[in-house]
Design brief:
homodimer, alpha+beta, L-amino peptidase D-ALA esterase/amidase, eight-stranded mixed beta sheet, seven-stranded mixed beta sheet, 15 strands, ArgJ_beta_C (chains A, B), autocatalytic cleavage (chains A, B), EC 2.3.1.35 (chains A, B), Arg_biosynth_ArgJ (chains A, B), acyltransferase (chains A, B)
Chain lengths: ~400, ~400
């Protein structure tokens, strides 16, 4: 955590323990640093697992194996390596992951497929097997630690530790979520990746957990962008230990399913926002709300075109209500839009309506809004009922310094 | 031209006069500035015209009318307004363009459709009709000027005037091209747009000129990116006066068609490179060559994903041979690629082959190459015969300063 703490950082929340999920950390010394860099979470038998992974086709072996193994639905352990992403390392990288899976499976007496491994850090250097072996040995026998320790240990260029929690009532029973995430820019300098882990004591069918996680991810993790770049290792895993004692959640409409889904979605949104708030160089958190598109997906694409536009992001950094750049971004999104039906606002104040600037537009409240840390941009396409909100941060000198100047 | 001159600037070349195309400039005073900002080029009767325009669907009235009128194939005049893009201004903006077309058409005694108008500058402010009228009046009666004067007059945030020339032998006759362009970032702060104008004395059928211009633009203007943002007003027009006395070029394979096409393509490439070299904050010119893709179009898309990646562009700014970021960009391009067949090099030196870093890779020549101003990135996908080269610039503090800090 070499850079200044993000001005948008929040304190780490009090994350409850999750029965059946025990975190431990250790030192594998993947880099020359004096910190824990290997995280191990032991999970009770019958823990359900679901996962969403990067769409980047040059993904790491960790992602390939995770995507495959999540299908059998059960997990006994999670290992996270920080400091080396093991991406673009060919068969040697794959062997290192398989060695870790075997080592943990032997310790727990479980199937290798129930051990999930993630790695984050430098690309193109195979994960050193000897360091991994020693680190895993240490972690397997370490004392249990807090979720905050685990959140710090999975971090690389993150400037603050990130966690989220929620509860839901399922059939009269309270189920609890504790979740951690790392990420700061889609890829940080030679480091990589957003990695998120959600732990709950709820009992839930793994296929249904997967369905809910995919849906929640589409509305949260897939609606954030820092720099439009997609890591080779992005991973979010949800683990449900079943220890809360609720009647198992099996499908849509069954008791507590809605409450569980809402809490899961809430946790995902909290985690996604935290990653944006630690975006490289971020000074402002930006919510882009698009309404009136021809569909929700069209609204999301238009929102992402705005959120990914360097000119929009630098305008917000400059506290400039530059709606012309938003017009430009809407027009290049490749989605249905009509220049003469487009309306644009900042902080709830419309600046342009139906394709023309409002003659009586009052700049003062907009200028005040743009001086704050939480910025909202509203865009109405004027064509339909589709809507979406996406989140990003501004583009500042800090981003350039982190990504271009760090060698000096 | 308020910013420091680009370190990649070149001196304005000696552009020959083109028989039948006479430039003049005047002051319309669209902004509070002491410079000419209205350009008028009078064209001989029967001048052939072709054009390519922005794909941004929130385009200006100038683009809408130009796209429509280019179809009749003949031009008598070009008017370019600098300082106001007239984009996103509804019917009032359209009326201003039509007024200019009528005014020039009355003066020349030609059809209104033969008057082409472009505007570049602030978005969302209708072009003031009174200023336009007076500026056009002045320009119609001004003394002819040089192409360099015209290049300076169409510029907005450009840091240097940009021109290109070429010749071709068509049926024993020399035909000459003189061309000017403005652009610096796809949209500059509150200013906009790449506008390019190519003048030749060749005699050519307008439909065939359109075919050749579209093809040349696809390989040049559509292969550059500064910041991935697409202006609402981008326009390139080619005018052929027919005064060279060559046998008219009518179709592919006819005498001189290949030579003409090559010269046109050469001029387009020169102009496109000049825009990149004046990219906002640019310190380095980057050529990305992609080979081994499944098709040329696939290679172009992969190249653009690399050229648009903020992480790749900041790495080059930092003189860092960060091939991991190129792997990432290839993987997110959405085109066929195989991690284990991918090879990446800088300045002609392969750094990774077949999905793995080369163990005996020599960093010294790559480090030396990256210290230069002209950088090449080579990517071989290893799947087919598709190839493309795209051009961009690095992403520096200068870009942020120009686009975020300019209000201070």
């Amino acid at each position: 955590m070499s850079h200044a703490i993000s001005p948008l950082a929040s304190p780490f929340p009090a994350l409850p323990a999750i029965a059946g999920a025990t975190p431990r950390v250790a030192r594998a010394r993947y880099k020359e640093w004096d910190r824990c860099d290997l995280t191990y979470v032991e999970l009770d038998e019958n823990t359900a697992v679901a996962g969403v992974f990067t769409r980047n086709i040059c993904c790491s072996s960790e992602v390939e194996l995770g995507r495959l193994n999540v299908k059998q639905g059960r997990a006994r352990a999670l290992i996270v390596n920080a400091g080396n992403s093991n991406a673009f390392t060919g068969y040697r990288g794959r062997e290192a992951v398989e060695q870790i899976m075997d080592q943990v499976a032997a310790h727990l007496g479980c199937a290798r497929e129930q051990v999930f491994v993630s790695s984050t850090g430098v690309i193109g250097v195979p994960l050193p097997k000897d360091k991994a072996k020693e680190g895993v040995d240490n972690a397997l026998t370490a004392a249990p630690c807090s979720w905050e320790d685990a959140a710090n240990t999975i971090g690389t260029t993150d400037t603050f530790a990130k966690g989220a929690t929620a509860t839901a009532i399922v059939g009269g029973q309270t189920v609890t979520f504790s979740a951690i995430i790392k990420g700061s820019g889609m890829i940080a300098p030679d480091m990589a990746t957003m990695l998120g882990y959600i732990f709950t004591d709820a009992a839930i069918n793994p296929a249904y957990l997967q369905e809910l996680l995919t849906k929640a991810a589409n509305e949260t993790f897939n609606c954030i962008t820092v720099d439009s770049d997609t890591s080779t290792s992005d991973t979010v895993l949800a683990f449900a230990t079943g220890r809360a004692g609720n009647t198992i959640i099996n499908c849509e409409g069954c008791e507590g399913a809605d409450a569980f889904a809402a809490a899961l979605s809430d946790v995902c949104r909290q985690l996604a926002h935290l990653v944006v708030k630690d975006g490289e160089g971020a000074q402002k958190f930006i919510a882009v709300s698009v309404t009136g598109a021809v569909s929700d997906e069209s609204a999301r694409k238009i929102g992402m075109a705005i959120a990914n536009s360097p000119l929009v992001k630098t305008a917000i950094a400059g506290e400039d209500a530059n709606w012309g750049r938003i017009v430009m971004a809407v027009g290049k999104a490749g989605e249905p839009a009509d220049r003469d039906k487009l309306s644009i606002g900042f902080g709830g104040v419309w600046q342009a309506k139906d394709g023309q600037p409002l003659p009586d537009y009052d700049e003062a409240p907009v200028a005040a809004h743009l001086k704050g840390q939480e910025i909202s941009i509203e865009v109405d396409i004027g064509l339909g009922e589709g809507r979406a909100t996406v989140w990003t941060c501004d583009l500042t000198h800090g981003y350039i310094s982190i990504n271009a100047d760090y060698r000096s």
